[in-house]
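subagent[fold] <- orchestrator: predict structure for attached chain, return tokens only, no commentary.
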Amino acid sequence: MKNKLVILLILPLYLLAQTKQNFKVVIVAFYNCENFYDTVHNPMIKDLEFTPTGDRKYKSAIYMDKVNKLATVISQIGTDISKDGPAIIGLAEVENDTVLNDLIHNKNLLNRHYKIVHYDSKDERGMDVALLYNPKYLIVKESMPLTVHLPSWGKYIRHTRDVLWVKGILDGEEVNILVNHWPSRLGDEEISNSGRYAAAAVCKVQMAELSNKNPNAKIILMGDLNDNPNSESVIKVLKAKGEIENVREGELFNPFVELYNKGIGTLAYQDSWGLFDQIMVNYPWLNKHQIGYFYFKQHVFNKEFLIENLGKYQGYPMRTWDGLSYRGGYSDHFPSYIILLKKTK
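subagent[fold] -> orchestrator:
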């Protein structure tokens, strides 16, 4: 996997280096933080295992190590392109604003002055999505959690993470961001598929409303979709396309199709790579001759220090937990990110 990534990176980075005096650069990233809990029990959610007396013996030392590990990763994403790293980064599997505040005030991120957009969802495990943004680049104007109503199965009412919608001004132009963490693949296949279709439909409706108000609205859809770029929720519900020349007005371009087809992923299961952590852009981002920002390139951030070097998960992303044992890794997902460029005068 590593050799493929190097080949993929060389040409775009070379071209960018040759023209860096003529472009502004913005990094947009996404990261599933893998069970980013604090140590305090919240009786409204199922988090007892992530407490000092719980099964994981989740004490302050482990929590602070987790904060530092995540901050270390975020601090390095895209810095070979932009010294400021991600201007915008969506997060999944975060418990609350406590963990987010500890994260942005970590020594590795403090000079970025990140701000937070977060809402508590009804997810049973207390896992939410959030957005961090650098106010040097983005001014947030509006945000809202979009509820995903899962199909009913018997008397059991299921809840999942909201879709987070954020509208802001990126260097003078309006952008819309949808942060996702779709229902998992655990359990009955029909039930889990229906949950991801429902989440995709929420995004589809929101994007249609934004485009109806403004046909040139710029939209970024990111998240852990618990589906690959070739899954039906992505290609049939979102109707995202992997070939940029085939994308038309009102449609999505999914640049991570290219990486997935090359065998590059963001997580591994049973020795097979999946690419759940995707970032898509709609048609207005694709014109490279516009005066605003345009889409340039996609990447999976899979540096050597993030890769498991021993045991049954060797070669996988180095996870925080091995069962109930603290492994001391970073996350069971690699981050993903895209590069946006804007021509300077």
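orchestrator: received. Logging for downstream: The domain at 2-343 is CATH 3.60.10.10 (Deoxyribonuclease I; Chain A). Residues 1-11 have pLDDT under 50 and may be disordered.
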